[in-house]
Amino acid sequence: MTANPDTDIIKEIRTLLWGNCPKEDVFNRWAQGFQFSLDEPTALVQIEGGPCAVIAPVQAFIIKDLLLDGPPNGWKHITVEKQDRLLVKAATEIICRASDSRDPRYSIVYIEDDNPEDNENLPNSHQVSNDTEEQPQINSDYFHSRLRTFTTGDLDEVEQYMAQRIDTLKEPFGVLLLLYTVVCTKGIQGMHCEMSDPTEPAIDSIYGYGCQSLINLMLTGRAVSHVWDHEQDVGGLKLRGIDKQNTVGFLALLEHLRYCEVGGFLKCPSHPVWVLGSETHLTVVFSNDRRLVSPETPAEQARRVFKKFDPEGSNFIPAELLQDVLAELGLVTDSEYVEIMRKKLDNENLGIILLAIFMDEFFPEETRTCPDTFTLYHYNGLERSNPDNRIQYHSGDAVLLECTVKCILDSNPMLTVLQTKWPSIEVQWESGRTPSLN
């Protein structure tokens, strides 16, 4: 473990996240610790708008680990020790994903101990309230002046440090300290290389929302600005997306307006947990039905690979790319065979190959692996967005209808975002009211 008193990296992180001058009201909305709900002991509380870019991904990883232990109806009686272990494990996993896998180095950002009289400048360490008048104001300059870092190559040492100093995650700067640690572990150069525009603050200076690069960093370890698979060529620009299947997923409300495209690596994660993105907030939906994340079928892989060569989303590729698609799918690529197939798939000699014709030829039958019915649970960390201001998981009975025509209702954003993943889904929520995405 190597301590680093140098504040240059802290200044760079501060500029990357907040710009030249953080607004104190926005900064204060982020200055909260990780606290669990009294009504749902595995659900994190979000006091103000903004830090959901960190809190929702941590919640998603907590739920991922919980699902391995048993069904959600058994989560009501969790000890504080269990809460601590879940929080530490989620934080450690997120930090690990941000490191360079070829040479793992983990840079922990922590607060230098105060003199006793300085403690008067700190807010109540375990206060959870929506009453902003009761929240002490924190000077960002003072906060940043106390930050220090140390670096280690041992992930076990990171987890041990987190476990021993769990209170630092629960106290008012816990969310920020985890965020700074993840960014510091990624490295400023790594952030700049992956973000589309690193000159724009990662945290909105007016509303305090985290940008997509920040969300992606917390979910995947990559600070890319897009959520499609691989990279896409847009007007000659190579725009990078997600490079492999993720542990937890992401769905975006704005995808139905074609403002963004969520690729299969996030829509089809390895665990049935998805962060949901509305225009202003992040929540989480999950299920304990693992059939929702069954291994990718050959046909699903073929569609994903085909779309990699179809960055415009036109559902066709130039005929000359057929050999490349076949090669990536591990199919026959002998030149004579490829030429025969090219003529068969493009029998009108238009110079293109349609996705539907390609699938009919190479993957004519596809067995449906997704269940027709399953239970979904939804989490929203804002008290004001929950009935009676009680943060709890809300369950619903989901059914995939035979009809594949989507019915998009602007009045039901929850259904709209779920239909980007399951086009024919309908959900009957147990409470009788649809949970809020905001």
From TrEMBL:
Main role? Answer: Hydrolase that can remove 'Lys-48'-linked conjugated ubiquitin from proteins.
Stated family: Belongs to the MINDY deubiquitinase family. FAM188 subfamily.
- Give the species this sequence originates from: Aphidius gifuensis (Parasitoid wasp)
SUPFAM superfamilies for the chain: EF-hand
Keyword terms: Hydrolase, Protease, Thiol protease, Ubl conjugation pathway
Listed under catalytic activity are: Thiol-dependent hydrolysis of ester, thioester, amide, peptide and isopeptide bonds formed by the C-terminal Gly of ubiquitin (a 76-residue protein attached to proteins as an intracellular targeting signal)
Q: Which GO terms describe its molecular function?
A: calcium ion binding; cysteine-type deubiquitinase activity; K48-linked deubiquitinase activity
Q: Where is this region: Disordered?
A: 113-138
**Compositionally biased tracts (Polar residues):** 122-138
UniProt-listed Enzyme Commission number(s): 3.4.19.12
Enzyme class, spelled out: hydrolase
Question: Which residue ranges does the record assign to the EF-hand domain?
Answer: 297-332
Origin: domain of life: Eukaryota
One Pfam family it belongs to: MINDY-3_4_CD
* GO process annotations (BP): protein K48-linked deubiquitination; proteolysis
User: Can you name this protein?
Assistant: Ubiquitin carboxyl-terminal hydrolase MINDY
